[in-house]
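We were asked to recover a plausible sequence for a given structure. The inputs and outputs are reproduced exactly as logged, with field labels preserved.

PROBLEM: sequence recovery
POSITIONS: 244
GIVEN STRUCTURE:
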């Protein structure tokens, strides 16, 4: 237990190793299952409420246990362990969305949670393999973020509109400006990777340098929002036509 929950591990994660591919397969399977169960989720039946509170508990336990691990090993610092990255924000909005089922939180979770969490699963910025707690926390947490964000959208599809693409994108720009111009400079942090790119291989490596890095971030974010909404609406339109 001391080794599993310890400060360090002798087993580093290798990108696309067997353990990595297994958790990716589990995450993808969960996505497909949620899509297949979308009619049950929209009907708010017993399965909906069971999944709703299960996802909430997984998100809550993941975040609390992570903070405890950092504090217990005297690693915790504001510049590294606050949930201010997109996945951390999406985890919080998803928990609020799961409790309240309010359209505002569902919109935020849908646009901020699915793609960032999925990209984090594919290119994890995390050094531990499955022999360590951090491996399980990272993959369980990010998988739950993506699942919960999709779960909420499938349960309440009318919460998502074309207008919500622009509203959430505007909120993201304001938040990014706050992090980039105040939080990161004041604390020496790198939240949202606005100070520098991740140390591991990631799609951000192709975004250029200097001002072009930020321009490309903004353009790609809007494109992903629009594409994500378009795919989601196509999915429901196709479902409706098949039912008829």
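RECOVERED SEQUENCE:
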């Amino acid at each position: 237990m001391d080794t599993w929950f310890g400060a360090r591990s002798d087993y580093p994660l290798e990108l696309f190793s067997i353990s990595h591919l297994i958790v990716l397969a589990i995450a993808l399977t969960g996505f497909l299952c949620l899509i297949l169960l979308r009619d049950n989720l929209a009907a708010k039946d017993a399965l909906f409420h069971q999944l709703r509170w299960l996802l909430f508990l997984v998100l809550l336990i993941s975040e609390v246990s992570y903070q405890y691990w950092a504090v217990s090993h005297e690693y915790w610092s504001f510049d590294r362990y606050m949930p201010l990255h997109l996945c951390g924000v999406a985890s919080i909005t998803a928990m609020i969305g799961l409790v309240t089922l309010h359209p505002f939180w569902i919109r935020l979770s849908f646009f901020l949670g699915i793609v960032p969490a999925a990209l984090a699963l594919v290119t994890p910025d995390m050094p531990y393999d499955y022999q360590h707690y951090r491996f399980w926390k990272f993959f369980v947490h990010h998988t739950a973020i993506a699942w919960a964000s999709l779960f909420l959208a499938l349960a309440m599809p009318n919460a998502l509109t074309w207008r919500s693409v622009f509203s959430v994108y505007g909120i993201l720009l304001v938040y990014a400006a706050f992090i980039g111009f105040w939080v990161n400079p004041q604390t020496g942090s790198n939240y949202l990777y606005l100070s520098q790119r991740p140390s591991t291989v990631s799609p951000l490596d192709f975004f250029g340098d200097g001002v072009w890095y930020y321009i490309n971030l903004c353009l790609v974010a809007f494109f992903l929002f629009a594409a994500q909404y378009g795919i989601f609406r196509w999915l429901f339109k196709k479902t409706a036509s098949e039912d008829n």
